[in-house]
Known about the structure:
Elements: E1 4-11, E2 13-23, E3 28-39, E4 42-50, H1 55-58, H2 73-76, E5 80-90, E6 98-105, E7 121-128, E8 149-161, E9 165-167, E10 170-172, E11 186-199, E12 202-215, E13 220-233, E14 246-256, E15 265-276, E16 282-294, E17 300-312
Antiparallel strand pairs: 1-2, 2-3, 3-4, 4-5, 5-6, 6-7, 7-8, 8-11, 9-10, 11-12, 12-13, 13-14, 14-15, 15-16, 16-17
Amino acid sequence: NRARxxxxxxxxxxxxxxxxxxxxxxxxxxxxxxxVEKWKFLxxxxxxxxxxxxxxxxxxxxxxxxxxxSIINRYFTLDRQQGVALYGRVNEGKNSDLNYWVSIxxxxxxGSRTNDDNNLMYVGRVQWNFLGRALPYTNxxxxxxxxPEAYLAIAGATNQSPYTRFSQSGGGQLFEVLxxxxxxxxxxxxxxxxxxxxxxxxxxxxxxxxxxxxDLIDDNDNRLGGFYFQAGYFxxxxxxxxxxxxxxxxxxxxxxPNLDESSVSEREITLALNYFFNGHRNKLTMEWSNFNxxxxxxxxxxxxxxxxxxxxxx
Length: 314
């Protein structure tokens, strides 16, 4: 369900970089950005890209551990926006090793060059690499790291726009609302806590989200919460008879779309097997998922899904 053209590199100087990504199947220009990365402690990015907010959305579709992202991604991702960002890394190699990102964006989604009002989207993220080594945005410990890599991160965002969610298609709405709101109708504030870890074939990632949506016209307020944790392991690290390129993975995700209504919730459990012919560039994924959507105290919705995907990057 994905076919992408990706072009990246540098121009004139090694620290002057560019990246371009186009979705062939839907004819969407996804990414176009220029990065000035002359100094590690201070870099500049201008253009359109996935906002530096949460790990699950930042990991490329070609480097995921499971076929797709969790059920909470739709509710909390900021997806792609246009704007400018400052970012960097300080105290590299020490216990106080930190990455940071500060972004100012249009806040109206992919493909939107203008802001609907005078209120921009502001995003901040701080990542503490407490072992002195930075963990990249990729899933599965294919490299079988000899030294553990881990981080703790917090991030926050605030935006006022006609939208309550974002996706690859641009701005959209949560719940039963179908049309965009008026200019500046929704004030959205959100926050996350995130962890990640990889060592000797084991990988871990988790996110916990909170989001507050305030309808400034109809004077309504809705609070959401959710989390997921995901782990994978190459059992060949323990048992020599286990296939070296085969990984097992598990994800559990929980969403409360209205923290004031305890009878409403959604849950996902996914089990997967990955066989890496050539790392993430050529892999086969087989997964089973169980979904439980509790709409009220009387009726629950259940669904099971089985998928196989062959993912190739050239």
